[in-house]
Structures are given as C-alpha cells and as structure tokens.
Automatic annotation (TrEMBL):
PANTHER family for this protein: CYTOCHROME C OXIDASE SUBUNIT 3 (PTHR11403:SF7), CYTOCHROME C OXIDASE SUBUNIT III (PTHR11403)
All copies of domain Heme-copper oxidase subunit III family profile, residue ranges: 19-105
Gene3D superfamilies given in the database record: Cytochrome c oxidase, subunit III, four-helix bundle
Sequence intervals crossing the membrane: 52-70, 82-103
Organism name: Vigna mungo
Identification of the protein by name: Cytochrome c oxidase subunit 3
Length: 105
C-alpha cells in the first residue's frame, strides 16, 4: 500500500498543473467579456522575455558552471582556482540580481 501513495500524490500534482495550464490557455485563446475581450487584460503589465530575462539566462547558467568549477577545484585541492571560481560565481550572482531588480522596478 505504501508504494501506491507516492504515485497518487504525483498524479494529484499533475492533475492540478494540467487544470491550471488548461485554464490559462483557455483564457488566452478565448478571453471573456469580463476582462474586456482581450488578452492580457487591460492594466496587466506583461514582461517582454527577449529583454533582460533573455540576458539573465546565460548569466544564471554561467554562475552554475562557475560554482561547479569551484567545487571541483576544492575537491582537487587547488585553492587559488577555487577562489577565482567563487569570485566569478558571486560576481555573476550580483550581476543577475542587479539586472533582475532593475527590470522589475
């Protein structure tokens, strides 16, 4: 009985995600009169994904690569390289956070 419960919980999660996706898709394809018949509704500010979020994606991926580099340098006992990698990671994280704050303000 215990092996069935985790799969049921996963099924509930997928069902909820499917219902949310279906509702948002329906609203965008057939907007109702209550929201003005347009999508997105008036007064909703839409983010342009090809501006700063597009730039933030490679910054975030580079930060992940840099922290992996730092981890491997620490395991290999190369302290100088580990420090360089951690500085790069923190710098990329600050850049990512700054761009994110600027974009959302």
């Amino acid at each position: 009985m215990k092996t069935v419960l985790p799969s049921l919980e996963g099924g509930d999660l997928l069902l909820t995600a499917k219902a949310f996706f279906r509702a948002s898709s329906h609203s965008s394809l057939a907007p109702t009169v209550e929201i003005g018949g347009i999508w997105p509704p008036l007064g909703i500010w839409v983010l342009d994904p090809f501006e700063i979020p597009f730039l933030n994606t490679p910054i975030l991926l580079s930060s992940g690569a840099a922290v992996t580099w730092a981890h491997h340098a620490i395991l290999a006992g190369k302290e100088k390289r580990a420090v360089y990698a951690l500085v790069a990671t923190v710098s990329l994280a600050l850049l990512f956070t700054g761009l994110r704050a600027r974009y959302l303000s």
